[in-house]
Design goal:
Shape: globular
Organism: Zasmidium cellare
Oligomer: single chain
Radius of gyration: 26 Å
Pfam family, one: Glyco_hydro_28
Family: Belongs to the glycosyl hydrolase 28 family.
Number of strands: 38
InterPro entries: Glyco_hydro_28, Glycosyl_hydrlase_28, PbH1, Pectin_lyas_fold, Pectin_lyase_fold/virulence
CATH topology of the largest domain: Pectate Lyase C-like
Number of domains: 2
EC number: 3.2.1.15
CATH class of the largest domain: Mainly Beta
Number of helices: 3
Distance between the termini: 59 Å
Largest sheet: 30 strands, mixed
Bound molecules: 2-acetamido-2-deoxy-beta-D-glucopyranose
Structural class: mainly beta
Helix content: under 10%
Length: about 450
Amino acid sequence: MGYQKALTALLLGAGAGLIDARPASQWDLARHDHHDSHKHKSFTFSFPSSDPTGSISSIPLGTGSATIPSGTAVVPSGTAVVPSGTGISVVTSEKSKKSNSSASSSASAATAATTASSGCTFTDADSAIASKASCSSIVLKDITVPAETTLDMTDLADGTTVTFEGTTTFEYAEWKGPLISFSGKQLTITGAADHVIDGNGAKWWDGEGSNGGKTKPKFFYAHSMTDSTISNLNIKNYPVQCFSINGAENLSVKDVTIDNSAGDETNSDGDALGHNTDAFDVGSSTGVYISGATVKNQDDCLAINSGTDISFTGASCSGGHGISIGSVGGRDDNDVANVYIADSTISDSQNGVRIKTVYDATGSVKNVTYTGITLSGITKYGIVIEQDYENGSPTGTPTDGVPITDLTVSDVTGTVTDDAEEVYILCASGACSDWTWSGVSVTGGEASSKCEGVPDGASC
Ligand SMILES: *[C@@H]1O[C@H](CO)[C@@H](O)[C@H](O)[C@H]1NC(C)=O
Ligand SMILES: *[C@@H]1O[C@H](CO)[C@@H](O)[C@H](O)[C@H]1NC(C)=O
Ligand SMILES: *[C@@H]1O[C@H](CO)[C@@H](O)[C@H](O)[C@H]1NC(C)=O
């Protein structure tokens, strides 16, 4: 790892314990104080070359930040700003590295909260939650989250990196969740090689999803994330819906693996135990870019309820209900625009491409592109676009309150099973317009006999 390169110290409680705290003098710091104002002073510091790997990771009773220049056998140095009149002592990260444990892993939550550092490794949820705001780089290592607890990583400091390491899992209780929650700006959320986030879903799976049976916790809230990236997470066995992306601005989700295939196991009625296990639900967001997702589940691979500038590319979806927009209508936010769904495969799923809007509701679906989608083993509809949903089911009667306009469907090819319908379109009169279809070839099933309101360009 080298030096801890960044230092962030927050206001800390006077009585709180410190890990290996020593007065600065004992570390032989070259320290020079400057008075910047009547309220704050800054000090510069450097370590002597005899202790070249030391770094400041905490300043009690202070607030400030410093950057320690990178380099090998150089003397780390930097500047920190603290309130005037406070004594400064320094915690180095070197000591804890020698004992081969992180600054916080052996510490109580209260102590961990005092290490405002770029190297915060946590092995329990409470410590991580207590200390999150004072860490610029958080490692969540082998955490078992207690029942009825959210691994609450909301309101992280701007620019925080969070890495899941080892196995993250969750104790069972009937409650609404979420099990994991993030918010913040310029966050980087990722997973170390071989990590797994295991939702322990089999404890909840009863074939009823969110329609009944056990109360099941939602899984991963990515709410109010701005200019942030979630990448390389390896998720399995979540109880019910996986990612809830809401209020996001410029959020990238890259190379996430979501494997809920264990939920395909059936109950005595022959229903899959995993139900309503949507992989990505997106609402009220501007700029969500999901790429390279691998999904095995029992409901939508993607469901966009509202939002603008959303892309979903390079995905592999299987076992579920397809790549969906909707249902749109009947919520606070009912407008979907500028969606680009491309270069993805959908296999062994109920539907391939799907857009559904709500009966008697208002809203809009505008400028949506599906291109380069390969289908196989689709059991209900290869392509389905319908304006008749009510309470989660089709009514057969479309209404025109949520028009679907500027829709491009190109290079959507592949096969459905023999009793599936290849393409089904049900639009209210005039409520679907400006559609461009090209290279659409869905074969292996039946032509639909129920199509209505099919706009020029499309064929049913
Ligand atoms: C120290 O930690 C490293 C990295 O986690 C690990 O590879 C190594 O085996 C550990 N050494 C001891 C003595 O625990
Ligand atoms: C979007 O977020 C990425 C990653 O945080 C960042 O590099 C990029 O500059 C952001 N773009 C805009 C338009 O804010
Ligand atoms: C339509 O959506 C695409 C993204 O698929 C976007 O690049 C384009 O600017 C949008 N067009 C309009 C007119 O907003």
